[in-house]
Design brief:
Elements (H helix, E strand, L loop, with lengths): L2 E6 L5 H15 L3 E5 L15 E4 L17 H13 L1 H14 L4 E5 L4 H8 L3 E5 L3 H8 L7 H6 L5 H20 L3 E4 L14 E3 L13 H4 L8 E5 L10 H7 L3 E4 L9 E3 L6 H7 L2 E4 L3 H8 L4 E4 L6 H9 L6 E3 L7 H9 L15 H16 L3 E7 L3 E8 L4 E9 L13 H18 L4 E7 L2 H4 L4 H11 L2 E4 L2 H12 L9 E6 L4 E5 L8 E4 L3 H6 L5 H13 L8 E5 L1 H10 L14 E3 H12 L16 H17 L4 E5 L3 H18 L1
């Protein structure tokens, strides 16, 4: 499993919400994300908790503000200098963190210090942003004062003093950005706002989104035709606005996070409200220019009224990016009378045309990053998909160095409730929906691609409907493999456990079949495949534990093996079982390689489940629905231990996808050596 560290700038909420959107797509590919952000945890509530950890700290300072979100030059300068005075301590802390967590890649939005960390740890580092801090700080140093207050402040931090203080810092920031391996440039940016990066890769719109949105009119009992004006100024301070005058002018509901508004049509929401739902339901959005606010609004083709802050450099890039967006209006001030607001609302004309430029491209952004990452680490990759009865197991493998780059799996439940030797249309559609994001992302990667179908796919008479769909849509070579071929790949997955001193048996319990391979007989990889697995036990009449146990024992007795064996359990069945027994979080499952599962531990776990004490183990299951399968895997494994006269089974974290990759690498190497 790949582990990425995502660092957010400590400035507003936008940098963190963008990285949240990116993390969601990386997680769809099975990447475990360490998110480093000082912003509230609720911003990341939509992420799969098994695949990310939030580290609430910051390694940059952004821009400091005064009242009404005006830039405070003096505090900005002092905060940057204070940060850099702690550079060595920060670097020491982050390098230790990156090494401890075995981080494979850093993504920044867009703290500059991270290129130092990456250099020390020798890992790739990418930026994802619409601006960099060199551009912001350099632009601030040449801005003239715009009002009397600013002119008075110039005595404390005048332009010359600012430039003198910041010139060495600007040079440092420039050089740190130059060390990034690439920057993925988001829309709502300009060439000038990205000038510090040596390689810029253009990509689409990155913004938070949801699969389903709630109808807030229905939730709050408002009429379906009620117009909604949503006011949002981001997570950095407040802007002056006469809410009462605005509410008088708007014929509908005005939603904001401002407290104490005395207007009947004003509806207060807290800062931790689901703003994606609010944006989705709103007719008009009133905001300051900010990437995340604009991106989340334009992806839904919402009408935006925005009021720029004076002399804030990023807003020039944002406004330039909005030139091709028809549903927006720039106003020069928020201090307007009721009639002025009425005139604005009455003159709004909404275009239904939605340009591709302003549509969500989260998956594309994520896939481009993964594409660049894989190009940097290897030029000889293979993607192996193991489509079994309950899961799609995925492997990205470096053929040249015989090294696993990434592994993940998706629960498809393909064989669940399988009847009449055919998949239902609904089942096929559901599985296609589940596996599509992974297949789409892998399509960007420079790898050979092969899909091995096993278990229920061998039995289904319409299995080719699924394999043909995969081949036609994603260009993946698909093959429904025989039990003997599966036995071969089981052998190649577990052969490193063969000791030569004692008989070793590798066992792969799947959904619809179970394979046994004698690792000591290396020439022919002899083995046996029993035509049942955990899902067939679950689907058929063996739901009663005693009946299932009896059936398992009868099947095991039919095998020709005699005496005692060292047992190696390969694949997900034993990874999941060990994760529960050892109470191992999902991001740590690689540590389970070589662990032993004892009969005593299995019996203790079985007892806890029998007395309904499973609450202690649920955090270590990917899904609570796995419990019935877990109970069967415990019973099956105890029967195996008894049959082969041993007290424990060794966990092999590899499945047949790894076995295939190992076999393919050997085959290719032998061919090249001839």
């Amino acid at each position: 499993m790949l582990h990425f560290a995502l660092y957010a700038s400590n400035h507003g909420f936008g940098h963190s919400t963008r990285l949240c959107a990116l993390a969601e797509e990386l997680i769809n590919y099975g990447v475990f994300c360490h998110i480093i952000s000082a912003k509230p945890a609720y911003l990341f509530n939509n992420l799969n908790p098994h695949y990310y950890v939030l580290h609430q700290r910051s390694i940059d300072v952004g821009v400091k503000h005064k009242e009404d979100l005006q830039v405070d030059l003096e505090k900005t300068v002092s905060s940057i200098l204070d940060l850099l005075s702690q550079r060595n301590e920060i670097m020491e802390q982050e390098i230790e963190f990156l090494r401890r967590e075995k981080i494979d890649c850093i993504i920044a939005d867009v703290p500059y210090l991270v290129s130092d960390f990456a250099a020390y740890c020798q890992i790739p580092v990418f930026a994802v942003t619409n601006f960099e801090w060199y551009y912001i700080y350099k632009s601030l140093s040449v801005l003239p004062p715009t009002d009397s207050a600013a002119k008075k402040q110039i005595s404390c931090c005048d332009k010359a003093e600012y430039e003198t203080s910041l010139n060495p810092v600007l040079n440092l920031i420039w050089s740190l950005y130059q060390r990034f391996d690439a920057c993925f440039q988001l829309p709502l940016s300009t060439k000038d706002s990205m000038s510090a990066f040596k390689e810029v890769i253009h990509c689409g719109l990155l913004a938070r989104k949801k699969e389903r949105y709630n109808d807030i009119r229905q939730i709050y009992g408002w009429e379906k035709t009620t117009s909604i004006l949503l006011i949002m100024f981001g997570g950095e301070g407040k802007l002056k606005l006469n809410y009462e005058e605005l509410c008088k002018a708007f014929k509908g509901i005005v939603i904001s996070s401002q407290t104490g508004v005395k207007a009947k049509n004003h509806f207060y929401v807290p800062m931790n409200a689901d703003f994606l739902d609010l944006i989705y339901n709103a007719n008009i959005i009133l905001c300051k220019p900010g990437y995340s606010t604009l991106a989340e609004a334009v992806q839904m083709n919402k009408f935006i009224i925005y009021c720029p802050r004076k002399n804030y450099p990023e807003e020039k890039a944002l406004i330039a990016g909005l030139k091709k967006y028809p549903n927006c209006l720039q106003i020069d001030s928020l201090q307007k009378e009721t009639q002025e607001w009425k005139d604005i609302f009455n003159n709004i004309q909404v275009s239904k045309t939605h340009s591709k430029l302003f549509q969500n491209a989260n998956q594309q952004v994520s896939a481009l990053i993964l594409q660049k990452y894989t190009q940097m680490i290897s030029n000889q990759l293979i993607s192996v998909f193991d489509l079994g009865s309950n899961n799609l197991n995925y492997l990205l493998y470096d053929i040249q160095h015989r090294q696993i780059i990434h592994k993940t799996q998706l629960t498809t439940s393909l064989g669940k409730n399988f009847k009449n030797d055919q998949f239902s249309i609904r089942c096929l559609q559901r599985v296609q929906k589940i596996i599509t994001p992974l297949l789409q992302t892998d399509a960007y990667l420079p790898s050979e691609k092969v899909l091995l179908a096993t278990g229920v796919m061998r039995k289904a008479t319409n299995a080719t409907k699924l394999t043909d769909w995969i081949a036609n849509n994603f260009g993946i070579k698909c093959k429904i493999i025989s039990p003997q071929e599966e036995i071969r790949y089981v052998y190649y997955a577990a052969k490193h456990y063969e000791s030569g001193e004692e008989a070793s048996l590798a066992i792969d319990i799947g959904g619809f079949s179970t394979e046994f391979v004698n690792l000591n007989q290396t020439k022919t990889q002899p083995g046996y495949s029993l035509p049942f697995g955990l899902l067939t036990l679950l689907n058929d009449r063996y739901k009663d534990s005693k009946e299932a146990k009896k059936y398992i024992e009868n099947q095991l007795d039919s095998l020709p093996y005699e005496g005692s064996y060292k047992l190696i359990g390969i694949g997900l069945t034993y990874v999941y079982l060990a994760a529960v027994i050892y109470k191992c979080n999902y991001n740590e499952v690689d540590k389970l390689e070589g662990k032993t599962i004892s009969k005593d531990a299995l019996q203790q776990l079985s007892h806890f489940l029998d007395v309904n004490a499973e609450i202690n183990y649920l955090p270590y299951l990917l899904k609570e629905s796995y419990l019935p399968v877990l109970k069967l895997s415990i019973s099956f494994t105890i029967s195996l231990l008894d049959r082969f006269k041993t007290q424990e089974i060794i966990v092999c974290n590899s499945g047949i996808s790894v076995g295939y990759a190992n076999w393919y690498s050997d085959k290719k190497a032998n061919k090249e050596n001839k």
